[in-house]
Amino acid sequence: MRKRVIAGNWKMYKTRDEAISFIYEVAKVIPDRDLVETVICAPSIMLRDLVKREDEHLRIGAQNMSQHEEGAYTGEVSAKMLTSYGVEYVVVGHSERRDYFHENDAIINAKTKQALQHDLTPIVCVGESLETRELNQTNTFVKEQILNAYEGLSTEDALKTIIAYEPIWAIGTGKTATKEQANETIKFIRETISERFDAITAEDIRILYGGSVKPNNIDELLAMSDIDGALVGGASLDSQSFLKLVEAALK
Ligand code: PGA
Fold first, then answer.
1. Mean pLDDT (whole number) for 218-239
2. Ligand 1 center from residue 176 Cα (angstroms)
3. Range(s) of the domain holding residue 143
4. Count of the separate structural domains present in the chain
5. How far is the CA of 232 from the centre of ligand 1 (A)?
6. What average pLDDT score do residues 202-222 get?
7. CATH number at residue 76
8. Is 9 near ligand 1, meaning CB less than 6 Å away?
């Protein structure tokens, strides 16, 4: 049985007061971490406050980090810094990072390795553009992203990661992939993991769907055979909407 994960991605939203209010609003109602893994991935500047005030079952993640161990990289945050502040997860290779900050597969691979080396759980994002989907190239494209991101990883390492399949055309657009489209691609990602590692790893690795997940569509997505949870942007910003998503994962 794969434990479900609901991970909020706040992107570049919220002030300090808004972030802290959110944590107070969800405190005490986040389900037991043994039942569902609930994560908030926040801007780096908020992480310390969130970790300090975190509800015992809520986990905190970063949205990005450097692929380098340390050094003269002005403006960057390292994996070691994140873990030293009690951060447990990091989103790696989000399509916004790939598109706006020119992160390529080699950088994403280096970040994944760096996160693992410091016991951070990387949430590795993959997903195709609308053009790629319309050309029927989704599987080829996503397979390459996975193989490149997992290049050089051991089976043991792979199992410590979480994959998020986020079709770019569904992110922030209100246009969710149908549950069948999402499940089909996630199943294919599992097959890719099976070929690259082995069947047990493919069976055990958690794969989330992301892209306009809302309280009104999460049930049908989670009901699919291969979808283990969600990476959620917009609907994670409001505490009540986020809690509804977490409750859905308990069913
Ligand atoms: P969305 O974002 O839920 O607002 O579509 C998802 C994401 O970018 O992770």
1. 98
2. 10
3. 5-249
4. 1
5. 5
6. 97
7. 3.20.20.70
8. yes
